[in-house]
Amino acid sequence: MAKTVLYIKLVHSLLFFLIGICTMYVFFAAALDHITRWTWLAFGVAVIELLALAFNEWRCPLTDMAERRGAEVGSVADLFLPAWLSVRLFPIFGIVFVITCLLLIWRIFF
């Protein structure tokens, strides 16, 4: 694997973990009714990732970049996740994000 691809995948992995942590943080903050500035910052990170995916046909731009540089699979999931989980990441995080949004709406308005 070329160094460039390795660096792209390393950045991709770090961003993946950051976004996952932010998503789960907002979920628990909303579930426990402990909404602070940090909650909104983490929510913003998750929304920015959602927009990046939406504007790139539901594919991470870093995946495309890694594949253009020679990676067979540019996905971050091939580095550290089992195949059965990596193919289910979008549905899992999509469901968690929708539930999180509903919890936030509930906490704010009710």
Query: Which regions contain 5 or more consecutive residues with pLDDT less than 50?
Result: none
Structural class: mainly alpha
Task: Tell me the total number of β-strands.
Answer: 0
The gross shape turns out to be elongated
Please, how many helices?
6
> What's the oligomerization state?
single chain
- Percentage beta strand: under 5%
Could you spell the SSE succession in H and E letters? HHHHHH
Mean pLDDT: 87
**Percent of residues in helices:** over 70%
Ends distance: 52 Å
Radius of gyration: 15 Å
How does the major sheet shape up?
none
Number of domains: 1
Could you give the topology of this structure?
Layout: H1 3-31, H2 37-54, H3 61-68, H4 77-80, H5 83-86, H6 89-109
